[in-house]
User: Which sequence fits this backbone?
């Protein structure tokens, strides 16, 4: 595997200050390619490789402040039809104050001649005034399939089929990376440098990269000569140079920004820091220390080199498998999942940069255990985190006062190992009563950590946050904290925990569900608080399938264990089922969960549940009634209900519940008639037709179903009830619509000012009171039954599908 040369052949647009042709130079110290100022997204960038190639790695180095929220990758062999490979998600870089550049590495195995990058909307920050996206460098590694001579001819005549880009502004040759320039004169394929080293070069300036390569080659030579003492010394020096090189890259970026802002005092100060740091990297002639001398790098506090594994500075990249075309899935293999990365090493990722403040208090020799992680055997060899900006330290004063500056720095680190270790250490301190501050303050700090940790993209960090949350629960119970203060502190973590019920990884989803049930069973939280978060909707958009399935599973367990209590009433539960169309959902798993929940509630309140089942079709209602009768017949008579001290609500004994649940599962397994009912029935309009096989049903969706419509902007067929949200959130042409702040409807940008100035629109009704039809703009009844009455019975006058009937 070697580095593959390429040339940019087209782009949607470019900023004159950052033309796309800069990417041809593979320079990582400049601005790189920039999209036009205030442009529309997505923007596309296409590169042509030196010939037909088998691509194994793609490296994308993002700008430090002009960052895309998402980058889609496409491959093609003829530049006519591209196959979507997947996408990369980038961080906002707010934690590093927009000084660090994120390097993304994608591992694939596919043949291609052209690679297209689709750049989506940028992150908004104070340093990106014109809403631009920047790509500093792109590296492609793999093997050229064509003959070398033929490939050279193709590259020399690469412009025969494309319009060439404007010439690159003159730059000094000293600024170019010596081993990665694409010019035909300097490109050599005799001894290609390893691809991993090429990606490493993208993170450093040319001088530092050359030193690192020299030391790496010397280390390999020492290993070949079995001089392991020298190899060990060179390894230490190599890691120190990498750490300092990352710091140099950040300082260079800060200096360029200061010059652009004409802040010359800051530029001079940064330049002095760069000179001092470069002086500390000074080496004797020959570049590599002799075996009789120690590494010459001298610093007030040397970073310790990890022996077990090097913690990656950036999290592993992922491609969303669910959104990739099947053809692309067969052609390409994706990076390991987060679970795999937790137990493995990332050789392409850089180690943390040299810490300034976090490590001054602790200078320790190589191999000594890290005293901050005592009690965590697998973390005692973890290195020091990078320093935090002073502004972030000031904002985190309360956390620093409770857990100390070192663990606070670890918690905010870009390295997931540090974040994970910080949460595990705080969990240990809480369990062993090592924190002597006010219990309310300790709980508030832990709550902040859990809120951030649960939403972390690395699965191991999320699991550690779940453990910390459980420790918080025991801590609150041990100190007998008042319920109101505990619930107030736990509200934000509960929001993140409920969101994790839709997590794709089963292990995380199961752990979160178990934790939520423990919180519901505790005296300081209780089922009412948990249920209120489960039923809470943070947006008008319909819940994704996995999220809805996870919430319904939790509701089923809550009702089964605790019965009906405040905020877990029959109205709230059945209303949640109806709002999410669970009774007639296209997924059988969702329909079965809705029926199981209804059976559990029927066992508690009996026929009082009937008014909430009016939306069921007659045959479906018969199945529900059969399930109710079967559950009551097989359940032993319940003893007199017991009053609980907390809610004074009646609830059947747990033993009876277990029997009901067992019978319910058996009944669901034995009777699968619901599948036959749905086999020839539209799940939206309830139309039953024996001709509804899969193809005929698709045709019905596409052209006939009165509950669906085709978006005029993108052509997608969607539910009429979600058309307004689709135009504002999901539609490819969503930039053509804006939401009216008064009525909440999607208004075209062209008429938006006129619409708002007229000031004659009515506010959108509350969800529990009604809906508004996006076709006729009339207010209709609430929930799903309101939509069905309007679209199927009275028939919306502006629905083209019923006008044709």
Assistant:
């Amino acid at each position: 595997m070697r580095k593959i040369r390429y040339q940019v052949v087209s782009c949607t647009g470019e900023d004159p200050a950052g033309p796309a042709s800069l990417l041809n130079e593979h320079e990582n110290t400049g601005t790189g390619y920039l999209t036009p100022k205030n442009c529309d997204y997505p923007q596309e960038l296409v590169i042509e490789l030196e010939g037909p190639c088998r691509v194994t790695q793609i490296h994308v180095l993002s700008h430090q402040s002009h960052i895309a929220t998402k980058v889609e990758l496409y491959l093609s062999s003829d530049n006519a039809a591209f196959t979507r490979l997947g996408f990369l998600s980038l961080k906002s870089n707010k934690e590093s104050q927009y000084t660090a550049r994120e390097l993304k590495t994608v591992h694939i195995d596919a043949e291609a001649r052209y690679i297209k990058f689709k750049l989506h909307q940028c992150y908004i920050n104070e340093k990106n005034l014109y809403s631009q996206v920047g790509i500093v460098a792109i590296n492609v590694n793999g093997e050229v399939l064509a003959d070398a001579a033929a490939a050279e001819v193709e590259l020399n005549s690469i412009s025969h089929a494309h319009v060439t880009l404007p010439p690159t502004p003159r730059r000094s040759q000293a600024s170019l990376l010596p081993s990665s320039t694409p010019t035909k004169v300097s490109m050599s394929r005799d001894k290609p440098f390893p691809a991993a080293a090429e990606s490493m070069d993208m993170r450093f300036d040319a001088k530092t990269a050359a030193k690192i390569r020299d030391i790496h080659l010397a280390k390999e030579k020492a290993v070949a000569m079995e001089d392991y003492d020298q190899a060990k010394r060179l390894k230490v020096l190599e890691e120190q140079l990498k750490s300092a090189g990352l710091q140099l890259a950040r300082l260079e970026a800060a200096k360029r920004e200061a010059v652009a802002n004409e802040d010359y005092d800051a530029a001079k100060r940064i330049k002095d820091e760069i000179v001092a740091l470069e002086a500390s990297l000074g080496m004797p002639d020959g570049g590599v220390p002799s075996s009789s001398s120690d590494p010459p790098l001298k610093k007030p506090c040397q970073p310790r080199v990890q022996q077990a594994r090097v913690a990656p500075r950036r999290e592993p990249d992922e491609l969303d498998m669910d959104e990739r075309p099947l053809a692309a899935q067969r052609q390409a293999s994706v990076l390991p999942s987060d679970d795999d990365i937790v137990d493995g090493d990332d050789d392409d990722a850089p180690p943390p940069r040299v810490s300034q403040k976090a490590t001054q208090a602790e200078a320790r020799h190589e191999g000594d255990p890290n005293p901050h992680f005592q009690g965590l055997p697998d973390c005692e060899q973890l290195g020091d985190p990078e320093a935090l900006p002073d502004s972030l330290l000031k904002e985190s004063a309360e956390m620093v006062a409770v857990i100390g500056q070192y663990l606070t720095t670890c918690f905010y680190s870009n390295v997931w190992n540090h974040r994970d270790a910080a949460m595990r250490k705080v969990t240990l301190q809480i369990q062993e009563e090592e924190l002597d501050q006010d219990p309310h303050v300790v709980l508030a700090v832990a709550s902040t950590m859990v809120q951030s940790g649960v939403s972390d993209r690395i699965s191991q960090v999320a699991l550690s946050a779940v453990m910390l949350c459980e420790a918080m629960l025991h801590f609150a119970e041990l100190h007998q904290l008042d319920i109101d203060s505990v619930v107030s502190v736990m509200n934000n973590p509960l929001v993140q925990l409920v969101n994790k019920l839709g997590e794709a990884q089963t292990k995380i989803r199961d752990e979160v569900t178990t934790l939520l049930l423990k919180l519901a069973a505790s005296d300081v939280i209780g089922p009412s608080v948990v249920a209120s978060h489960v039923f809470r909707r943070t947006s008008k958009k319909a819940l994704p399938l996995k999220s809805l399935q996870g919430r319904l599973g939790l509701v089923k367990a809550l009702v089964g264990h605790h019965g009906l209590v405040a905020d877990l009433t029959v109205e709230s539960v059945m209303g949640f089922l109806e709002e999410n169309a669970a009774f007639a959902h296209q997924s059988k798993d969702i329909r079965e969960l809705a029926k199981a929940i209804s059976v559990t509630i029927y066992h508690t309140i009996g026929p009082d549940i009937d008014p909430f089942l009016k939306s069921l079709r007659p045959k479906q209602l018969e199945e529900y009634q059969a399930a109710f009768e079967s559950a009551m017949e097989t359940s032993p008579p319940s003893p007199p209900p017991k009053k609980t001290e907390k809610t004074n609500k009646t609830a059947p004994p747990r033993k009876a519940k277990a029997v009901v649940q067992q019978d319910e599962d058996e009944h669901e397994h034995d009777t699968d008639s619901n599948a036959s009912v749905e086999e020839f029935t539209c799940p939206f309009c309830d139309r039953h037709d024996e001709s509804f096989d899969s193809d005929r049903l698709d045709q019905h969706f596409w052209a006939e179903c009165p509950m669906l419509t085709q978006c005029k902007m993108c052509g997608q067929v969607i539910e009429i009830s979600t058309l307004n949200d689709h135009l504002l959130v999901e539609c490819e042409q969503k930039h053509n619509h804006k939401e009216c702040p008064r009525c909440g409807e999607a208004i075209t940008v062209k008429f938006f000012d006129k619409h708002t100035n007229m000031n004659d629109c009515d506010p959108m009704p509350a969800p529990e009171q009604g809906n508004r039809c996006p076709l006729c703009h009339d207010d209709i009844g609430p929930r799903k039954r309101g939509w069905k009455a309007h679209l199927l019975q009275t028939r919306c006058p502006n629905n083209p599908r019923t006008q044709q009937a």
